[in-house]
Amino acid sequence: MTHILLGDDDKELTDLLQEYLTNHGIRCDCAYDGEQVLNKIKSQPYDLIVLDIMMPKIDGLNVLRQLPTLTQTPVIMLTAKGDEIDRIIGLELGADDYIAKPCNPRELLARINAVIKRTTMQQSDIVPLEHERLQLDQVHRICTVDGETLQVTGTEFDLLVALLQQQGNVASKEWLSQTVLQRELQPLDRSLDVHVSRLRKKLQPYHEDPIKAVRGKGYQLVL
């Protein structure tokens, strides 16, 4: 059974989401401030974290900043509707996806299942991927460049897999959104661009322009 942590100080919403998710086969623990979120993460592993940005004691963005030292668990942010800045900052800090509040429980469940699906794969179906200086161990989800381990988020790893599968060809944004984020590309959705930008910065010590943006077409891995 999928086991997630839901961090939100809105107890009424949290109880509603917990009941809905539990009824759909997801075990859901709750935390009502940033300190509780961090303490629960330290005490046990989770398959996914749903994290509200506006929380007491430690806000969601500062929780995100601390997560890489504690866990590689994927994160879905809960953000205020229309608050694009928080969404972008959250994605830059390593969140895998976001959903605006007030959120539809059915949509949240769909996002949870999509993130879980792309971050947990059957080992028997996986083969290592290599390209020049880059190696991707899909069983353990480890990325190495020139033999050095590169710390990437789950979404960044999936983005590398998708780009590598194109064998140097340009991958369209529409295809990447469907393949990596498992949703259609929307005109105002910058999630994919933020993930690419963050991954590009991590790869730049190895190549000046590791992921090229091809105007009107998409992205190309050139590392």
TrEMBL record:
InterPro entries per UniProt: CheY-like_superfamily, OmpR/PhoB-type_DNA-bd, Sig_transdc_resp-reg_receiver, WalR-like, WH-like_DNA-bd_sf
Cell cycle recorded as keyword: no
Subcellular location: Cytoplasm
A Pfam family reported for this protein in Swiss-Prot or TrEMBL: Trans_reg_C
Keyword annotations from UniProtKB, A to Z: Cytoplasm, DNA-binding, Phosphoprotein, Transcription, Transcription regulation, Two-component regulatory system
Superkingdom, taxonomy of origin: Bacteria
Molecular function via GO: phosphorelay response regulator activity; transcription cis-regulatory region binding
Response regulatory domain mapped to chain residues: 3-116
SUPFAM superfamilies: CheY-like
Domain OmpR/PhoB-type as annotated: residue spans: 124-223
Any Gene Ontology CC annotation: cytosol
DNA-binding region range list: 124-223
Modified positions (4-aspartylphosphate) in chain numbering: D52
Keyword Signal: no
PROSITE patterns: OMPR_PHOB (PS51755), RESPONSE_REGULATORY (PS50110)
One of the GO BP terms on file: regulation of DNA-templated transcription
Protein name per the record: Response regulator
